[in-house]
Design brief:
The relative contact order is 0.28. The protein contains 4 helices and 4 strands, in the order H-E-H-E-E-H-E-H. Strands 1-4 form a two-stranded antiparallel sheet. Helix content is 24%, strand content 28%. The mean pLDDT is 84. Residues 26-55, 62-94 form the 4Fe-4S ferredoxin-type domain.
């Protein structure tokens, strides 16, 4: 039921040139030895890409890692990089994907 409602909303709010618009894919690079487990990066990530690791660094702190299945969800906004007081995170944006590929919408759904 909820999925059907989301499909209905999606069809009403789609962008005309969705297959041409690109969004960056950010690659999160964490230096675990610099992290002090403040969790700012996890709390401020708008796409909920990061989570706390189960492992600890040499100082005994948990460091952030990319959540399983969220590897393509980072949009390289660099919020985690900006809020990290220890400069333990770097974001690299080298790839782009189109929105229709990201959301799994076929090109024919847009009439083009």
């Amino acid at each position: 039921m909820v999925l059907a409602q989301q499909d209905e909303v999606w069809s009403m709010r789609r962008l005309v040139n969705l297959h041409k618009m690109k969004r960056p894919i950010g690659k999160v690079i964490v230096n675990p030895d610099l992290c002090k487990d403040c969790r700012f990066c996890i709390e401020f990530c708008p796409n909920n890409v990061l989570e706390e690791s189960k492992d600890v660094n040499i100082k005994g702190y948990h460091y952030p890692v990319v959540r399983p299945g969220k590897e393509l969800d980072c949009v390289a906004c660099r919020m985690c990089e900006k809020v990290c007081p220890d400069f333990a995170i770097t974001i690299v944006s080298e790839e782009y994907t189109t929105y229709d590929k990201y959301y799994g919408v076929s090109r024919h759904a847009h009439g083009g």
